[in-house]
Design a protein that fits this description.
single chain, alpha/beta, Spore Coat Polysaccharide Biosynthesis Protein SpsA, Chain A, 2 domains, 5-stranded mixed sheet, 3-stranded antiparallel sheet, 7 helices, 8 strands
Amino acid sequence: MTRIGQNPAKFVGTVHKPERITVSVLTYIPFLSGYFATYLDVVKACLESIWKNTDLPYDLMVFDNGSCDELLEYLLEAHASGRIQYLALSKQNLGKGGAWNAILSSAPGEIIAYSDSDALFYPGWLSKSVEILEHYPKAGMVTSRPFRTREHLMSATIVWAEESAEVKLERGSFIPWETFREFDMSLGQEEADVRARYEATEDYRITYKGVKAHIGASHWQFVARK
């Protein structure tokens, strides 16, 4: 069949401009049994907390890494209703690194707020994270929940803080026990082990031009410039 005329899309005068921030979530549920028996509810809770508690304009992108039909149906419905702006469905599991390559290269925003699909977001999480990212000139990524990590993984930030007259560096126990406990217990750890680690380690907190931040970020959730 021969095409007649020109594609009317060529004459569209305006197109949608993406939001400055793309919130990206990676999902993967191969089946609903064993470890994954309740994981569909976990994903729903994660996305609902984003929709409810994100306090800056954003587009939501979900990349699914080859999940079961039940999750795909839920995601497709959320996309059709406009709650998910960008939805990518992979037929195969690309692994986390492969999914990141797809997400980070295709997200249209200037800032990417990434999360695994088992995080729960509290009110104000995005605005506080963006404030720190933009306030600290060399911040590579900001995780929206403070937690403790190994000192050698944050050595460059510590050196910068120690050498800068504008920065106040503090060492001590600044993360409340309940906040620390909640995160570590969610990973299936024994409370006695969590308590021992809490008492044996410390936090690194910096203040730069009036804005406080804990040193330490992780791959499971972060906000970064594209």
